[in-house]
Amino acid sequence: MKRQILATASALILAASSNIAIAGGDAAAGKAKAASCAGCHGAQGISAMPLYPNLAGQKEAYLVKQLKAFKDKSRKDPTMNAMVAPLSDADMANIAAYYAGMK
Ligand code: HEC
Predict the structure, then answer these.
(1) Contact (CB, 8 A) for 44 and 56
(2) Ligand 1 pocket by C-beta < 6 Å: which residues?
């Protein structure tokens, strides 16, 4: 009985953690990649400048969409087009998870 409960619990934990992996990026990896973003968007994702948007708590899917749009230049902003140029799809997903998770 005990063993069965344990097996069920670990199966649930496995299922939950793989859901997280599917649902979005890795916020810890995103934090490392976002060091260069903090100068404009703020260390806590809240910008000090009127023309630099806040990113903290923004929707993850929206952030991914905007980063990809800057990368393919369908959204034009010289600064952001340059900032995202070196980022991979995984980097963008991770950065989005990082900012989305900020309060
Ligand atoms: C030199 C300043 C600067 C740096 C550094 C910078 N950004 Fe930006 N970012 C901006 C500005 C300015 C805008 C607004 C662009 C516009 O008006 O379309 C912006 C817009 C964005 C947006 C869109 C927000 C929205 O609400 O639509 C995202 C997402 C973003 N930046 C992410 C990042 C990430 C991730 C990094 C680091 C890889 C980064 N930025 C680095 C200045 C900067």
Answers:
(1) yes
(2) 34, 36-37, 39-41, 51-53, 55, 63, 66-67, 77, 79-80, 83, 95
Whether 83 contacts 40, CB under 8 Å:
no
Read off the pLDDT of residues 2-51 as tens digits, 9 standing for 90 and up: 666 556 555 544 444 444 444 589 999 999 999 999 999 999 999 999 99
All domains in the chain, ordered by first residue: 25-100 (1.10.760.10)
Query: Cα-atom radius of gyration of the chain, to the nearest Å?
Result: 17
Which residues contact residue 64 at a Cβ distance below 8 angstroms, ignoring those fewer than 6 apart?
25, 92, 93, 96
How far does Cα 101 stand from its chain's mean position? Answer: 8
